[in-house]
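Supplementary material to the annual report.
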Amino acid sequence: MRTIREFEDRIHINSAKGEVPGFIHLSAGQEASAVGICMHLTDADHIASTHRGHGHSIAKGCDVTAMMDEIYAKRTGLCGGKGGSMHMADLSKGMIGANGIVGGGVPLTAGAALKSVILGTDRVAVAFFGDGALNEGATMETMNLAKVLNLPMIFAMEDNGYGEATPSSWAIGGDPLARAKGFGLSACALDGHDFFQMHEAAGRIIEDVRAGKGPAFMHISAYRYYGHFEGDAATYRPEGEVEKMQKERDCLMIFKTKALATRLVTDKELDDIERQVVRLLDDAVEHARQAPAPGPEDLVTDVYVSY
Amino acid sequence: MSEKSFRQAINEALREEMRRDPGVFLIGEDIAGGTGSEGEEDAWGGVMGVTKGLLGEFGAKRVIDTPISETAYIGAAAGAAVTGMRPVAELMFCDFAGVCFDQIMNQTAKLRYMLGGQAKVPLVIRMQCGGGFNAAAQHSQTLHGLFTHIPGLKVVMPSNPYEAKGLLIESIRDDDPVMFMEHKFMYDDKGEVPDESYAIPLGEAYYSRDGEDITVCALGRMVNLCNQAADDLAQEGIGCTVIDLRSTSPLDEESVCESVEETGRLVVVDEGYPRCGFAADIAALAAVKAQSALRAPVKLVTPPHTTIPFAPTLEELYIPSVGRIKEGIKEVLAA
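Predicted assembly:
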């Protein structure tokens, strides 16, 4: 979680300096959801993510340096500099991809779950998507398909409060849980700011799905700190809302308080993690700055297997 | 070798590939039919009966009926392909690509490139195309041009049962996504089809007729109309080379150019929309790579740039006919 936060904060700062090309969507504030779920998955389990996919990628085990290289559009990037922030993926880690299309990754995730059914394995697939994607036909069609085919699939809806500039409370007609239940999915609401709640509930849900009990839906509250995209002043949010959430519901703060109180970690261990993360991201950013850009020879490769 | 229908040839290709590779599975609407009902099992075998009988041999885990949810199941097929399976999805009518185009255009086609070459997407999407059934505007289109426009997709259209089997086998084995277009007017067409398995490479055109006066390029059902036109014109002493392109992506540019170099005249016949379409693409190819050989303007025999009409009288005018192909050929020869 700390790595994701640092990753997003660095990009926020360096994007403002003009170091990062393209469109960037950051997930700072939402870390506990990604980590709480992905800790229960192996590389053989698949996830697909959204345009706000850095956190999910890191949580699923993607290499942080290669991710930073990718965001800096470098040849050494996770996708050779051809995908960028919105298409972060590492199939060897079971990360099918972030996605530039809202709801676009949800049907793809069903395919990974379908593979598990056809081959008779116990692999599961998790579709991360936002509150905006809950209103996409692709998502709703897939919820129905997953139920009909009894796919081992989890619909992890991260409700960060806003679909672009519009509050989810306005854009979602009806109750998301009722909607999911209407498709026959088991459904629950989770506080995505509390790692321990996320981790415990996700563990239980994923175990059930793995056991073949059918697809599940999670409505995860997970507030985003930055704007929809880097450069968005986010004036659609009420004054003081971000500060209040950061002060009261920050997932790192809640984790730290609980983990120290239960002696899960010591102050010293947290300090060590802090230092390691800072060094990791110092190195990643420096690597990304120095790495070579793709060359003309890369323009026309990877279109087909033959070229 | 025995005589089989276009429908049987496709069924045979699917059966053989499913036997060969446990990663191959079928998914689509009513590809068995009757799933979940107490009525007849495998009631349809696809709306045109193409997949009939496969449920019995391979079971419901590999012949998967879905709800009417094109986005969900085409996307799921792409997701299965990217994670190592080799799905063949049936989209019923190519017109329905409109329902799920994001999964085709933005996901399936682009995954490999966006992921920097990490992904293979060995997905075949089978679908009907073409007019002639008075099925009107949303069940009669031939959208190979639309698919060919998109990098990352391969687009295949067989013109007879022999090609249907060999091209489908090749398409299933191909590691890229293939849009496999079956003209709905041809399912009962008969032809010689070997019983054994064989693959026809994509991007290799077939010289369906040889003649020295003019080159005629086409795909799918239009090849047969071109051959009829060529046979008629042979009676009048006109020699036509008819090139069956078989696929638009990859495209056998060399065969087209070589033939145009020899004949100096080109007619392109196509059932797709004319603007930015296959016919215009081949004309451009000739203009760019074989212009010095052209002794007359290229003639495009296509539908007008209109929606496909319902009325039989209008649809007959819409679809290129043997008569219009012959007129086109004569026009170029007279120029």
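Chain B is about 35% helix and 20% strand.
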